[in-house]
């Protein structure tokens, strides 16, 4: 009887999600859960009524998404979902069965780069999307500050010092990862409670749709001076974030081989049970991106963590990330591998024997910092089912995971990757991509197909390419925290040496693949090649290679009009501007080094105009608005001045990332968003290019402190539009016209 009630409840949850995505009336959607289906769906429609038979609620929603795509009546996507806008056809069957069991969503950093200020409406749509994507589990950091607060209040800390320690929502994921502490002015009790209330709703809805929330477990992270609150505690200072070489100071680690750790862990999991319940999956990364055990045996430290976890939640699974030489074989050999699952973040850290025992998930890491850049090896992703459907399936491979650090980007990659859940052979992109675009754009169009064939060969080509470039001297100085004078750029060799050492310390083999990013967002330099440290600092294709794709998609936009097409058009125009900015900057450099003032001024004018037209096209779409990001942050503030503080931290993570101790992370999370582009990035370039001009005419220059420049912008109370304005097609056409002029002149 209870099982039947649960089935009815799950079917109802699935029907509600399908109605939200499809906008079909209640009577048009029927979901039946079938015990004889292990993990899959069967979908049909007759007489305008949709029937979904599935193994569970999540599979039912995924079935609707597959049906929508296959028939073209609608589209469900990371960005660009289109409800049913035409009659349902009489379709006998759209069906699939999962070929890989675990499908996990989210890097833990998504809670900082994408979702820190989301409300329930945004989360509700996101959970529907997770179900439609076949996701079975998702990392969730939302609301965890309540657990840490309650735990350490019981250890003798006062509320205010803990609120300060926890940091603001935008930066809390890195406390759960043991990387930072005491960021900014912290948080407030009201904010903690409000976010915990939202987290309960999120976890409940995930559970309704068959998605397990993976919550942070207790790794041993403790507030400062823990030994003063727990007399016999053995805590170990962890140094600076990145292997002790750079970044903020990490929290101390409570030795997990000791009794005090076991006692605090018991408190921690008890507070988890009270706040959110026990979900059965706990994320803990011991010594993530650095740190040390202070002489404690690593294997015994891992056993201590697992003992505490299973004591609190007997059937639980420890979720670890394979990243930066973790987890070591020493650690894995010390624990019960049947209770461990490993997320191979890049898909490149496993060996021939997998991880020597535990189950693991094959991942991709297509994005750092939530950056807005077209990137992702679609051919490689489409080929992945051969890894688990053939005879040479690696030992322990049990799932897949998209570990992008931010998820509001590259919808084609998200959709393709999650279609792998149901694939029993490599996907044929020659068939998959036209079907995807036809559903996304509301109809097939040869010009849309032409645009995507170009993108497939260029922006969505191989994860790695041969081109590579170095750090400009101006960037090195900025990363060292030194002011930069256009008349005397000296560089900072010690920064370059540190970065090289850091890269080798964090990677056993080649550095993880990464995209290049925007020179518009870069620290200004005539040699600027990308904004953040991650990536090859060189483009994978010629600067003007996407111009024909933009021409073709603009042509298609004359006939088609959907949310997905509008987004893709803006995103492509944004990328064209980013790419052509490289050409424009080279023209400035050539003129400047030739001391040709007329050519220099003309090239500068075109470069700044390109930034302006990029901002103009970004203003036309809600997904590219700085003002929307900031309005979401402001809305969480309830105490006097709290909203303004949250806005500052929301701006900070996109620019300087943190304070002076985080300067190595500057521009790590750069975004091409309207407002950010024209007000922040453009102001830096205008200032610097004026300084360079002064060197050409023998004028006086003034050293620029880029951290202080960012800090002033962060603290300014400028208001940015949080609703789109303008026409996407005409704005994209303006980008196209100027890009052609720059490339051809």
Automatic annotation (TrEMBL):
It holds the Pfam family NAGLU. Residues 515-736 form the Alpha-N-acetylglucosaminidase C-terminal domain. InterPro entries: NAGLU (IPR007781), NAGLU_C (IPR024732), NAGLU_tim-barrel (IPR024733). Residues 103-423 form the Alpha-N-acetylglucosaminidase tim-barrel domain. PANTHER family: ALPHA-N-ACETYLGLUCOSAMINIDASE. This is Alpha-N-acetylglucosaminidase.
């Amino acid at each position: 009887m209870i099982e039947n009630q649960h089935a009815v409840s799950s079917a109802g949850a699935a029907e509600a999600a399908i109605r939200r995505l499809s906008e079909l009336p209640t009577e048009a959607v029927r979901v039946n859960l079938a015990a004889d289906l292990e993990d899959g769906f069967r979908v049909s429609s007759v007489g305008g009524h949709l029937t979904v038979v599935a193994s569970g609620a999540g599979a039912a929603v995924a079935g609707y998404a597959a049906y929508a795509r296959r028939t073209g009546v609608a589209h469900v996507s990371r960005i660009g979902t289109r409800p049913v806008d035409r009659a349902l056809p009489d379709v006998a069957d759209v069906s699939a069965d999962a070929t890989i069991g675990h499908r996990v969503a989210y890097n833990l950093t998504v809670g900082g780069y994408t979702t820190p200020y989301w409300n329930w409406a945004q989360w509700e749509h996101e959970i529907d999307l997770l179900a439609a994507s076949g996701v079975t589990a998702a990392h969730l950091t939302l609301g965890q500050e309540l657990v840490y607060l309650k735990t350490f209040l019981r250890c003798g800390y006062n509320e205010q010092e803990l609120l300060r320690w926890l940091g603001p929502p935008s930066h809390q994921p890195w406390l759960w990862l043991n990387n930072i502490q005491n960021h900014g002015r912290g948080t407030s009790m009201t904010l903690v409670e409000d976010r915990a209330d939202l987290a309960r709703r999120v976890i409940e809805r995930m559970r309704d749709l068959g998605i397990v929330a993976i919550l942070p477990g207790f790794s041993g992270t403790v507030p400062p001076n823990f030994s003063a609150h727990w007399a016999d505690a053995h805590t170990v200072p962890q140094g600076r974030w990145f292997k002790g070489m750079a970044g903020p100071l990490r929290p101390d680690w409570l030795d997990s081989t000791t009794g005090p750790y076991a006692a605090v862990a018991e408190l921690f999991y008890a507070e988890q049970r009270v706040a959110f319940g026990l979900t059965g999956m706990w994320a803990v990364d011991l010594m993530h991106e650095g740190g040390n055990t202070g002489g404690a045996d690593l294997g015994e430290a891992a056993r201590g963590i697992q003992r505490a976890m299973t004591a609190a939640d007997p059937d639980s699974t420890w979720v670890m990330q394979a990243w930066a030489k973790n987890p070591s074989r020493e650690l894995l050999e010390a624990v019960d591998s049947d209770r461990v699952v490993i997320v191979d973040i890049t898909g490149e850290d496993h060996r021939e024997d997998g991880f020597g025992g535990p189950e693991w998930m094959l991942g991709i890491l297509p994005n750092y910092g939530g950056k807005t850049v077209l990137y992702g090896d679609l051919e490689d992703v489409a080929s992945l089912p051969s890894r688990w459907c053939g005879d040479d399936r690696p030992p322990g491979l049990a799932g897949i995971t998209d570990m992008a650090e931010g998820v509001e980007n590259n919808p084609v990659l998200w959709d393709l990757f999650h279609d792998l859940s149901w694939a029993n052979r490599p996907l044929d992109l020659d068939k998959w991509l036209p079907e995807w675009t036809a559903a996304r754009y509301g109809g097939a169009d040869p010009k849309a197909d032409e645009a995507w064939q170009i993108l497939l060969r260029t922006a969505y080509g191989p994860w790695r390419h041969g081109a590579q470039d170095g750090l400009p001297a101006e960037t090195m100085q900025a990363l060292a925290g030194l002011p930069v004078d256009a008349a005397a750029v000296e560089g900072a060799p010690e920064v370059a040496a540190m970065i090289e050492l850091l890269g080798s310390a964090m990677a056993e083999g080649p550095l993880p693949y990464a995209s290049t990013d925007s020179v518009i967002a870069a620290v200004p330099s005539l040699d600027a090649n990308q904004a953040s440290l991650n990536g090859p600092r060189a483009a994978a294709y010629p600067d003007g290679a996407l111009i024909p794709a933009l021409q073709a998609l603009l042509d298609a936009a004359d006939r088609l009009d959907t949310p997905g097409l509008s987004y893709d058009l803006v995103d492509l125009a944004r990328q064209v501007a980013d790419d052509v900015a490289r050409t424009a900057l080279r023209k400035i450099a050539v003129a400047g080094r030739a001391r040709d003032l007329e050519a220099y001024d003309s090239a500068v004018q075109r470069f700044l105009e390109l930034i302006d037209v990029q901002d103009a096209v970004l203003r036309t779409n809600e997904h590219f608005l700085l003002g929307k990001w900031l309005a979401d942050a402001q809305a969480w503030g309830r105490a006097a001045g709290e909203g303004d503080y949250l806005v500052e931290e929301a701006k900070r993570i996109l620019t300087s990332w943190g304070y002076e101790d985080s300067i190595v992370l500057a521009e790590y999370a750069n975004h091409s968003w309207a407002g950010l582009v024209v007000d922040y990035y453009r102001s830096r370039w205008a200032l610097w290019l004026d300084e360079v001009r002064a060197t050409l005419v023998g004028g006086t220059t003034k050293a620029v402190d880029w951290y202080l420049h960012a800090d002033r912008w962060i603290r300014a109370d400028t208001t940015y539009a949080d609703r789109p304005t303008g026409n996407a097609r005409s704005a994209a056409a303006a980008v196209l016209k100027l890009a052609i002029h720059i490339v051809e002149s």
